[in-house]
Amino acid sequence: MEARFIPTGDEVLDFSQRPEPAPGQVIESNSQVFVSLARQWGMEAESVPVVPDDREALKEAVTDALAEGCQIVVVGAGSSAGSKDFTRAVFEELGEILVHGINVMPGKPTLLAISGKDSGYPGRLLVGAPGYPVSAAVCYEELLGPLAAWMERRPAPRRPEAQAILTRKVPSKPGMEEAVRLAMGRVDDRIVATPLGRGAGMITTLTKAQGVTYIPASREGVEAGQSVTARLLVSPEELERVLVHVGSHDNILDLLADQLMGMPEPWRLVSAHVGSMGGINALKAGSALFAGCHLFDPDSGDFNFPFLEKYLPAWT
After folding, report:
1. CA–CA dist 180, 279 (Å, integer)
2. In total, how many domains does the chain have?
3. CA dist list (Å): 187 to 40, 63, 230, 245
4. Which of 78, 155, 248, 303 has the least C-beta neighbours within 10 A?
5. The pLDDT of residue 302
6. What confidence score (pLDDT) does residue 83 get?
């Protein structure tokens, strides 16, 4: 089955030209995430150059993809309700809207349609993927992957799962299911998970996360220390090669992470920067292998050790 990704937006730059974005511009990357995932699913996938914010230009690009045999056409961005968001209008011209908006955050603006007779190529799946990268990833993995599998009459792709203990509380807005990406690793006999920064545009969470958990719409969050089911974004074997740091940040952590990844058998350092006391509390709770600490005690004039003696006496 063939699929094509059509990036859109006047502010979007073609990554292959190695551009330097000016204020208000962004380098296009969602196509590469989609193409990589689609090929993992066994599909023939490609992307085309960025299409400007022009309704007729977008209609032409979608029609060309259908004419060239694509059973799935994904339009990147343009599925919200802005003045330059033409994806829904084009899909309505070419077929029937099935879904516009899902009750998941990030990923809410996702748009699904099916091409009709007027397009000349009925029965093809049309997808309006959100422009923000984390939203787009949710669209691909939660909707597009299973739909593509159904179209090919094969089992839907499934990721392995693991139970993980949260290192800190995760509040969530009730009424909306929320995908939370996690930095995960083993500490002693359990897997711990630190929630990464949330937001549809936080692209670094796509590379730093080892797993993702979904907080149901009926809940207001999950407390620290509770167990959650996480879908693994890495293999179980890779998860065993993760060093978990929680605490104050230091530049040496970045240098250490680079060195670990350069080893013959790479190891990954995951780090949650929650401050020095957060690191001490993580060690006390058994939710980190090591912690960064930069604390000054004015009474003794010493750094760190007075706090370790107070909060972690068994360590001193």
Report:
1. 21
2. 3
3. 31, 52, 16, 10
4. 155
5. 95
6. 60
